[in-house]
Amino acid sequence: MSLILISIAYLAYAAFWVRLSLHAVVWLRAARQQAAGPSAAPGKPLHAFAMTLIDLLLFRRLFASNKPLWLGSWAFHTAFFIVILRHLRFFLEPVPDCIVRVQPFGVFAGYLMAFSLAYVIFLRTATKTKYVSYQNYIILGLVFLISATGLLMRNYFPPDLVDVKSFVMGLVAMRPAPLPAGFFFSLHFFFVLLLVPFLPFHLFTAPFVAFEARKREFRLDKVMHDR
Amino acid sequence: MTGNGEKEKAAPDDRSFTKGLSPLQLIEIDACTQCGECLKYCPVQDVTGNPLISPPEKIRVFREFIKATDGLKARLLGPQHIDRKLLEDFTKAVYECTTCGACGQHCTVGIFTQRLWPMLRKEMVRRGLGPIGPQANLPKVIGETGNPYNRLAVERFAPWFPEDVKVSEKAAIAYYAGCTGAYEATPMVRGDVLVLGAIGEPFTMLPAEDEVCCGFPLFITGQHDMLEDLVSRLVAAYRAKGVKTLLCSCPCCVNIMSRDWPLFYKKELPFRIRHITQFVAAAMKSGKLAIKKELRERLIYHDPCYLSRGVGIMEEPRAVLRGIPGAELLEFDRNRLESRCCGAGGAARKIFSENAIEMGRHTIAEAVEKKADKLVLSCPACYAKVNEAMVGYDKQIEIVDIMELLAKMIEAVDSGTP
Ligand code: SF4
Ligand code: SF4
Questions:
Q1: Taking CB atoms and an 8 Å limit, are A212 and B24 in contact across chains?
Q2: What is the CATH code of the structural domain delimited by B291-414?
Q3: Cα–Cα nearest to B117, from B47, B38, B7, B40
Q4: What is the B32 CA–ligand 1 centroid distance (Å)?
Q5: What whole-number distance in Å separates Cα of residue B370 and Cα of residue B382?
Q6: pLDDT by residue (tens digit) across B252-281?
Q7: Would the CB of B27 count as within 6 Å of ligand 2?
Q8: pLDDT tens-digit series, residues A48-58
Q9: A28 lies in some domain
Q10: What is the ipTM of this complex?
């Protein structure tokens, strides 16, 4: 079991990078092909950057479109981020002070993540959303399972944290240590491995698109009002 | 959306789906969260209710295409087969869209769809799947007649051009009427010229045979081959007339002129592009044009997608209308950047005519509901289609182009109409 999960872990890790590289090759090829021409007037990049930060931190665009969904989606992404920060304690030695301080919030975020996810799934099914993306539901379901198994471990079936840490650090250092005991840990870990190669790409690309959108908005007034 | 049609031959490498897309557009395709929020704002969704032609579905399917030619399997084993029906359904979906950009305006990520959809169309043209229907004849027709309507150059200005307005041989200001206005929305271009005449600044125009298509119909249907030639001909002709400001009232022309002509011309244009309402609003402000007659009516102004979301012209048309004494200006619920397409955009109004008519009727219905006396438009395609939508519709309202209205106000004073 230990060997299988460790192998899957490296495979999932490799799959993620292969996927990212394939996308990057397409982006870079497009950058090379791009026709040269007069470039658009700069769109106040600093101002746009500051506004993009607000857009991203507060999910402003979603807020403008759908407030109930915004609530769930914002809570989910924020909680997910804090949970990841909390998990960094397994990857870093010594554990940085900021990660130590985040731990209590991390527990709360774990609950918030599961509940907000359930709320988002409920909202999307109950409100007869016009467009249903099954791929999205699979990913959301997977994340829900990850958070549910995480909470089960936190409350009822705690694994040996020292074992968990040496296992994770071993994986990262390419010197795999034995899998910590506990069914729920294996399950939790397995679900995470399933998610890694399929992480939605908007996580990496949406910030860039949001920044470009802001710059475009600032530029719009210049298209016909220049000179 | 899997379909059961014949299989397409494996695409060779140079037939990848990303050739005409910019890095940003490819990143945008990756960035769609598939949230489906944009469907709420899509006019085509309003009238078809078909999520298979929605923005997230188009993006999802296009991702599949990219995967088939650039994914891991394609890299290892060569480009993958793509179901022919899937390709055809996608092509239809991407051409059924009016390219109004409302989805992008409300996109939770900020994808610039008003630009993305035409570029996806271009990709489908490259693969021999687009455009659809008579759109495919556009390059031939424009090549032969200079306009997309297969009309003679002698009919371009003669039927509507006001006799008493003088056009200079050379001038710093030029007026471009545009094909749709000149052939399909003549009260609008006649209004433009009458108002320019009333302002009194000398302006020039190209002879009818030289005022060829601005390229927008080709651009928007993804057929870019002739664009460089058209643009360089037009720019050279205006340059030869010493033009410093090119005026135009058509939002689509104005859009391609200001956004894309520099790219096809490969350098900055030697003149600036202005929408007619910018020029007229400035003339009203400076006192060169004064509207003396009162119009005790409620006017509702519809923002054309390519004028508001496209190039940011939203306040000048309103300033012009507010300059009419007595007129009350109403707003659609969705106005300015958020305006709802009247159905005429994206070169889809003739091919998906029923959709367009129904969208036009949404616009008419809201204007009637708001108790407007006149529905004021500022786009020849909107003008042609919304007028068509009114035929046989139980809700009726007077449709007028903004310059047509202004010209009537000026003419009324000149002719002494009380
Ligand atoms: S551009 Fe307009 S018509 Fe096309 S998908 Fe977007 S909202 Fe719908
Ligand atoms: S709103 Fe934007 S991110 Fe959401 S489905 Fe539409 S295009 Fe995709």
A1: yes
A2: 3.40.50
A3: B38
A4: 15
A5: 19
A6: 999 999 999 999 999 999 999 999 999 999
A7: no
A8: 999 999 999 99
A9: no
A10: 0.94
